[in-house]
Amino acid sequence: MTSKKAALQGVTYQQGPEWPGYARQVLAWNWLTWLLNFADRGLIGPLIPLIIVAFGISKGEAGALVSLFFVGYLATFAGGLLSDRFGRKRLSVLSVFGFGAATCVTAAATGPGFLAGVRVGTGVFEGLQYPTGAAWVSESYPYHRRGKALAIWETGYSLGTLLGSVLATVIAAWLGWRGPWLVSGALSIIAGALFARFARERSRSQTPGHDEALALRAQGPAPRLRDVWRIRNVWVVFVLHGLYNFTFWMADTWISEYVIHVRHLSFIGGGLLTAVLFGGISVGLVLSGWLADRIGRVRAVGLLTVIAAVCLFLFTRASNTALLFVLLALGGIFGAYISSAIALVTDTTNPRITGTAFGVALFGGEIGAVLGPVTGGVLAQTFGLQTAINVLPLSLLAAAVIVWLARDPHAQSRRKAEPAVPDTLITP
C-alpha cells in the first residue's frame, strides 16, 4: 500500500506495498479460528432434543444450560483489555487451544451439572477471542474496506455455526450426542497449533486504523480506559450486539425444537433448518458489509433489519415445509447486521484502546446471548414454543430503531474518498 492522501478526513495511509499480504493473512487466520469457535457452539442447538431426553431435563432447564455457556463468554470484556496489553496473537492462541480442549471434555459429561460447568469454561476461552479478533481485523483495513473485511471475517461465525449444526445432526444421528464434541474439539486444537506457528502480528502503530486516528485528531494525549465510556458508538453497539445475539442464539437453540414439535419436521429436518438459517446469515454478512461501505453503516443496518423482521414474522406464521426453509434463510440474509454494527466502534475509537472498546461493546452481545436461550426456554415452558418464536422479529425491529442513535463520522465523505488499497487486499 503506497502512501496516499484520501478524501476521508485527509487521511494519509503510510503502509507499504507488502501490507495487502499481511492484511490477508490476518483475515484468513482469524476467519479460520473464528469458524471453529462457532462450530463448537453451533452443536448445542440441534443436540438439545437429545440432551433433554438423555438427562431428563425440562425445556426451561435446557435453555438455562445453553445460557450458562454465555455466562462464561462474558470474558469478552477481559479479552479486550488483555489483547491491548499483551497483543492480539497471544490471546487468540490461548483462546483457541482452550476452547478446543474444553469442547473435547464436553463429550465426557455425566449429567447436567457436569455439562453446565464445562460449557461455562468453554465460554470463557471462546469469549477471549471475540474482541481480540474484531480489533485485529478491523484495525488492519482502512475505512472504505473495513465493513467488507469484517463481513468476511464474520462469515466465520455463521459458517461455523452452520458447520456445527451439520456435524451435530449427522454425527449424532450415527453415534449419539457425544460424538460431535470430540470431532469439533480436535479440529480446533489442530487449528490452534497452526495459528501459533504461522500467524504474524505487527505493531498497531503501523495500521490503517492508527493513521485514521491521527487524521481524526484522536492521538494527542495518551487515551485512558475511562475514555472508552465517553464513546457513543461503543454503547450503541453494546445494545445492538445484545439484540443480535438475543435473536439468533434464541433461534439457534429453539428453532429445531419448534419445528419438530409444532411444525412436525424430523430431527434431521430440524437440524438442517438451523443450518439454513446460518447459511443465510453467511450471505447476509457479506451483503451488509458491502452495502455499509456504500450507503453507510447506520442506513444499511436500519434498512436490512426491517426486511429481516418481516421475513421472520412470516416464518412464525408459515406451515409449509419449503416456505419455512425459504423464510428462515431470508431472515438470516437480511438480519446479518453485526459486521456493519461493530465497524462503528473502530470508526470512532483511538487504536490504542480499540481492544478495550470492543471488549465493552461486545459485552452487551454476551448479555443478549445469555438471555436469548433461557428466555426462549422459559417462554416455551410457560406459554408454548409458538410464543417463544414470536419474539424473534420483535428484537430485530428494536435494532432497526436503535441503530439511528449511532454516529457515522465519515458518512458525507464516503463516496468521494479515493480507495487507499485495492480490492484484492481483502480477498482471502
Keywords:
disordered C terminus, 2 strands, two-stranded antiparallel ribbon, disordered N terminus, 16 helices, mainly alpha, 428 residues, Growth Hormone, Chain: A, 75% helix
What does this protein look like?
By secondary structure, the protein is mainly alpha-helical. It has one domain: Growth Hormone, Chain: A (Up-down Bundle). Helix content is 75%, strand content 1%. It has a two-stranded antiparallel sheet with strand order 1-2. A hairpin with a 6-residue loop joins β1 and β2. The longest helix is centred in the middle third of the chain and has 33 residues. The chain starts with a strand and ends in a 26-residue tail after the last helix. The N terminus and C terminus are likely disordered.
